Amino acid sequence: MHLLLDYIPIIAFIFAYFYEDIFFATGVLMAVMPAVLAAQWLLTKKLNRIYAASTALVLILGGFTLAFRNPTFLYWKPTVLNWAIGLVFLGSQWIGEKTIAQRMLGSAATLEVAQWRRLNQMWVGFFIFSGALNIYVAYTFSEAFWVKFKLFGMLGVTLIFVIIQTIWLTMTSQKNNSANQDAES
């Protein structure tokens, strides 16, 4: 259910875009995202910080897009969000006892501190890459292509990263478990 809620704004944006144009779609996105944020809070009684930051960026950059009739502001929203998240992940390498990757996935894998840091760095790289890829597509291809890329391309890139991360986590955890069993023998 939560994942479905996350995709409602982008789906609404795409339909609105192909119904009218980028400016109409931006207005729809600016209306839908706060509504979805409120729905998430009502369902979970928790505020999803990343989604809240994304909503704030949509309201700010979408407002600029509409005020100046220039979609470039909206093109930068995914990049700014991804790079900001990447910086937060990077900062967690030095701030706090655990990296964000370890806080998120600590119950799913048994890793050493250096391995958690490595995984966290993979996330940093992913967010930097995703932000750069978004802005590359926005400036290299047509607006219609960028809109489709937002849903299908970024979803595909994310799925590929999750698969790579899962394989790495599985291999590293198995290696750690084997080393622990050998040490106990």
Please tell me about this protein's structure.
By secondary structure, the chain is mainly alpha-helical. It has helices at residues 2-19, 22-44, 49-68, 72-91, 100-105, 113-140, 143-184. The chain has 7 helices and no strands. Helix content is 85%, strand content 0%. The N and C termini lie far apart (46 Å). It folds into 2 domains: 1-69; 71-185, no CATH class. The protein is elongated.
Short description:
By secondary structure, the chain is an all-alpha fold.
Sum up the structure in keywords.
elongated, 185 residues, mainly alpha, 2 domains
Radius of gyration: 19 Å
Low-confidence stretches: none
Order of helices and strands: HHHHHHH
Gap from first CA to last CA: 46 Å
Structure summary, number of beta strands: 0
Write the layout of secondary structure elements.
Layout: H1 2-19, H2 22-44, H3 49-68, H4 72-91, H5 100-105, H6 113-140, H7 143-184
